[in-house]
Amino acid sequence: MKHLAFVLIVLFIASCESSKKELTANDIVNKAIKVAGGNKLDRSSYSFQFRDIQYHAARYNGYYSLIREFHKDSVGFVQDYIDNNGFERYIDEKQVMLADTTAAKLSASVNSVHYFAILPHGLNDAAVNKQLIGKVTIKDVPYYKIKVTFNEEGGGEDFEDEFIYWIQTETFKVDYLAYSYEEADGVGFRFREAFNERYVGGLRFVDYNNYKPEAEGVSVEDLDDLFEKEQLKLLSKIELENIIEGSPLEVNP
Hints:
- This protein is an alpha+beta fold.
- The protein has one domain (about 25-245): outer membrane lipoprotein receptor (LolB), chain A (Clam), CATH 2.50.20.
- The chain has four helices and 14 strands.
- It has helices at about 1-20, 25-35, 100-115, 225-230; strands spanning about 45-50, 55-60, 65-70, 75-85, 85-90, 95, 130-140, 140-150, 160-170, 175-185, 185-200, 205-215, 230-240, 240-245.
- Strands 6-5-4-3-2-1-14 form a seven-stranded antiparallel β-sheet, with helices on one face.
- A hairpin with a 2-residue loop joins β2 (about 55-60) and β3.
- The protein is globular, with a radius of gyration of 22 Å.
- It holds the Pfam family DUF6503.
């Protein structure tokens, strides 16, 4: 009987071990999105300021409206709109007709600020490819290291950019991210360290310390190691101010 009990215990432990599922990149990102507010984003509206420019966003079950507005002395009051139908610019409440190339650049500029503001939301878009490339420790905290690339179709004009996200293994919060991007004379790199976490309307917002490597010949995957070695240069702080729930935008499905 003792032998049988021992065998049963061993089999039970083995069964428990085998039932532990190794998390995939998709699993980890899904948990990170849930921690950041999950499906609350699907029906949300909020406003914030970034570098003295006002931004608004409203979403309703796949329909969305995004806006950037600012006053420029030589131009007037500028409002840039993005929704499911495309991009429009207004100056002093009059629509301005733009060349397609100009509209695409302005749209990308507006969308970029909104995109970074709500990360990791957006990482389940159809054009996104995710890969778990390992576990690392930064400042004695363990992280999943997730690489993100984009398909050309649906990936935007910067589809060749590569991103890395460091997601805590316990809390599943994104504390760091890095990306590569095309410059006129080659490839540039940025590494961002999150701080000032707060939740508004159930959505997680953070600010970032924005770094770049001083050494040449690095890759985006090296940046966490360089950060640990204090070999990154602080360029700026990316801070969202006056975040409030609610927005003057309306979403019209």
